[in-house]
Amino acid sequence: MEIQDIRRANLQAMVDAEGLSVVAKKFQLPERQINDMLKKRKAFGEKIARRMEENHSPKLALGWLDKSEESTLPEEIDNDLLRFLGIDREKLDFPQIERIREFVRASNEHQSEAINLIKKANTPRKKKPGEGTKGK
């Protein structure tokens, strides 16, 4: 699959989930231009893809429109977590998926740090001479 086809498929998935007018507003483009890109009447090149990504989600790393694997969350993302957050797995768009992945990545890093601190705190340390005896 060519990169422009991947971008079109991702854009189409967003339009299907949110509607053309909502997607056009998020990308700050006219509906007609989005429609023309989907129908292959307009090119969907690098420059416009990056501008669209920046307009839609400036905090995300550029290139998310180019990723075909992004249509689903990895299975390690717990359905209970999504339910707690009020998120329907099937209605996520690509920026939301990427934000959740970043959150999980950061949570895992912090969790590892916390576990190491707990292990360190629970490791018995050697007593210094005279330590631990009651003085009179």
From TrEMBL:
Q: Where is this region: Disordered?
A: 108-136
The protein in question is named: Uncharacterized protein
Recorded source organism is Nitrosomonas ureae
